[in-house]
Design a protein that fits this description.
The structure holds two protein chains of two kinds.
Chain A (H helix, E strand, L loop, with lengths): L6 H15 L3 E5 L16 H4 L4 E3 L4 H13 L3 E5 L6 H18 L9 E6 L24 E3 L7 H8 L6 E6 L12 E2 L5 E4 L6 E5 L8 E5 L2 H12 L7 E6 L1 E3 L3 H11 L2 E8 L4 H12 L9 E5 L8 H7 L3 H12 L1
Parallel strand pairs in A: 1-2, 1-3, 3-4, 4-6, 5-6, 10-11, 10-13, 13-14
Antiparallel strand pairs in A: 5-12, 7-8, 8-9, 9-11
Helix pairs in contact in A: 1-5, 3-4
Chain B lengths: L3 H23 L14 H10 L6 E4 L4 H8 L2 H8 L17 E2 L2 E3 L6 H15 L5 E6 L6 H12 L4 E7 L2 E2 L2 E2 L8 H6 L4 E6 L3 H18 L3 E6 L17 H8 L3 H6 L4 H24 L9
Parallel strand pairs in B: 1-3, 1-4, 4-5, 5-9, 8-9
Antiparallel strand pairs in B: 2-3, 6-7
Helix pairs in contact in B: 1-2, 1-3, 1-11, 2-3, 2-8, 4-11
Chain lengths: 337, 300
């Protein structure tokens, strides 16, 4: 890909292509239609081109999640936008007791190819109910897949690859990533960093400051936090710690083997997530590593995450509550000590 | 139009089926629980026979044995499902209140299936199949907010759906008077949905009325809401002894038993024959299911 394209453009273009190529696609959500084009403008232009399949709804998250599920059960491939990820609590019964259960509960006789897209994350001063990483509440839901692209992934391709599944998918976008230009290069790039990608349907990106040779530390992270970790590596280019970043786009289920592959050489693991610390993604990965890679560990696992507090509105407190570069750097120093 | 004998036979089949389930529980031969619809059979049979079974969709709830049997006639699959057998409609995964078969779907959370029924109605409308969706709810379901979100959308988008509220007066133990403010019909009318109240135990009258409404919704592609008055003679679930209502009230409804109301209109010999055939079919299904295997998880 030569042309520079943003995270948001990538998703917008993918939605347009999906609508164009597949009549089963219906895009549903609040304030999606032109001229508004969605709260974050992700669906801009779509209703003008496809007026019958881009639907504005009332503010009724539970009902529209059910509506999209009903469409999916009857042969459509709905893409539902929930305006802020925080509002997934309003959809929880529909996702947990309905959409995610049907395929298995009805003995694999139905499919629910439902995609729920939603922006998550803080850093914009939106305060306690518009800044969270609510995906953590859904990590334990059987039947639900969770995808969370970073700017090192191709979110539009991931979105296309998420369509048509037998069970629903939660697609987590990050508000701070929307305007960012995607970094889709392979091989060596800036300041001695190199990058490679898995060939999976939902690719994992690996970034390294040692060309993946003899890493001292493995960092696993997803979404916007990968940007923070990569920036840290760039800033610390004269730092003498070899670091691999593992950045899956598929965050549930966890792909344990690719963590173990890096951990086998590094022996030290840091898990970085923007959600709150307790019972989070890091807790699950720590358990998996304790079960399957305990012998690789040279030091205790470190988790970097948000404090177990609501996310405050004012910048000073928000900065303190959310994880940042300094927290990651501190964790690196602690594990190599 | 269906003959009265057919409608009666379907109601007897449902009644005898659920009485058999109670018998099996008393002998400790069933695991789990059920929510029976004894006394409400006319609603299920009336609706199912008014539909075009080749395309219409039924979305049901926890009290769905009657809906299921009336729509699918699959006594054997339901018996196996409730007995937890591999041969059940969803191979023992769902049990009594989580059923799927062709165009029939049920689930166990109050009101949860209402928006999903809307989505199905939208799907059929977009596909131009001319199918309609029936969404069964109860008086207790009126406490759920998602019901109103969904009525609002079906009215705005003109969806071909009929909300069938079976008002059996009790949400578990709570009388409708203690749970529902105002007039039920007004709730639907507030969304500009045509709505009416119907008597639910006289199958002949109900079926004739429902056939007209189904045609109307199919032709207009607009939602419809009906509140059907009925009564469950049994408890809410298998272990409910109905301490919250009087024996006098129960007896007054027994006079309106949907089966008795038809009984008098049919020749005695025919009634006996129908009853015998239904019992034989249910006993046959039970005997077969006893031999069926329980499911096990393979490596999924």
């Amino acid at each position: 890909m030569n042309k520079q394209i943003s995270y948001l453009q990538s998703i917008n273009t993918a939605l347009r292509e999906c609508l164009k190529n597949d009549e089963r696609i219906v895009v549903i959500g609040e304030d999606l239609r032109d001229p508004y084009g969605g709260a974050f403008k992700v669906t801009k232009g779509l209703s003008t081109q496809f007026p019958d399949r881009v639907l504005n709804t009332p503010i009724s998250e539970a009902s529209i999640t059910g509506l999209a599920t009903g469409l999916a059960l009857r042969g459509f491939r709905p893409i539902l936008e929930i305006m802020f990820g925080d509002f997934l609590t309003l959809c929880a019964d529909q996702i947990i007791n309905h959409a995610s259960k049907f395929h298995w509960m009805y003995n694999q006789q139905v499919e629910v190819p439902l995609l729920i897209r939603t922006p998550m994350g803080g850093g914009r001063g939106y305060g306690p109910t518009h800044s969270q990483c609510m995906e953590k509440l859904f990590f334990g839901v059987p039947g639900l897949k969770i995808i969370a692209p970073s700017i090192y992934h191709n979110p539009g391709e991931l979105l296309k690859n998420s369509l048509g599944a037998k069970e629903p998918t939660l697609f987590i976008e990050h508000k701070l990533s929307y305007p960012k230009i995607l970094k889709l290069k392979n091989g060596d790039y800036a300041k001695g960093l190199s990058v490679k990608r898995s060939s999976d349907r939902f690719e994992t990106v690996f970034i390294s400051n040692c060309n993946f040779k003899n890493p001292d530390v493995t960092i696993i992270s997803y979404g916007y936090m990968v940007e923070i970790a990569e920036e840290l590596l760039l800033e610390m280019s004269d730092f003498e710690v070899n670091i691999d970043i593992v950045a899956p786009s598929l965050i549930k289920p966890v792909l344990t083997q690719e963590i173990l592959n890096s951990l086998q050489s590094s022996g030290r693991l840091i898990i970085v997530e923007e959600g709150t610390l307790t019972n989070g993604w890091g807790a699950e990965i720590s358990s998996l590593v304790a079960e399957k890679g305990f012998n690789y560990l040279k030091s205790p696992i470190k988790r970097v995450a948000a404090l177990d507090l609501p996310i405050a509105n004012t910048k000073t407190l928000e900065d303190e509550i959310l994880p940042d570069k300094e927290n990651i750097k501190q964790a690196i120093l602690e594990v190599i000590e | 139009m269906k003959e009265l004998k057919d409608l009666y036979k379907q109601m007897v089949l449902i009644r005898k089926f659920e009485e058999k389930l109670y018998e099996l529980f008393s002998k400790d031969l069933l695991f789990g629980t059920i929510h029976a619809c004894i006394g409400q059979e006319a609603v299920a049979v009336g609706i199912a026979n008014a539909l075009d079974k080749s395309c219409d969709i039924v979305v049901s709830n926890h009290r769905g044995h009657g809906h299921y049997i009336a729509f699918s006639n699959d006594v054997e699959g339901l018996m196996a499902e409730i007995m937890g057998k591999k041969t059940g409609v969803v191979a023992g995964r769902g049990g009594s209140q989580h059923l799927y078969n062709n165009n029939f779907y049920s689930n166990g959370v109050q009101g949860g299936m209402v928006p999903i029924a809307n989505g199905m109605a939208l799907a059929e409308k977009m596909k131009k199949t001319n199918a309609i969706v029936i969404c069964f709810i109860g008086d207790g379901t009126l406490g759920q907010g998602v019901v109103y979100e969904s009525m609002n959308i079906s009215s705005l988008w003109s969806l071909p759906i009929i909300y069938v509220l079976e008002n059996n007066i009790y949400a578990m133990s709570t009388n409708v008077k203690d749970a529902v403010a105002g007039d039920i019909i007004h709730r639907a009318k507030a969304f500009n949905i045509d709505a009416e109240k119907l008597e639910g135990n006289d199958i002949e009258a109900l079926y004739r009325k429902l056939a007209v409404i189904v045609t109307k919704v199919r032709n207009s592609s607009k939602p419809y809401f009906m509140c059907i008055d009925t009564y469950r003679f049994c408890g809410h679930s298998k272990s409910d002894s109905c301490e919250y209502r009087s024996r006098e009230e129960e007896l007054s409804w027994r006079d309106k038993d949907p089966l008795s109301l038809v009984y008098a209109k049919l020749p005695k010999e025919m009634v006996k024959k129908v009853e015998k055939e239904c019992i034989e079919r249910i006993e046959g299904a039970f005997r077969k299911c006893q031999k069926d295997l329980y499911p096990v998880l393979k490596n999924e």
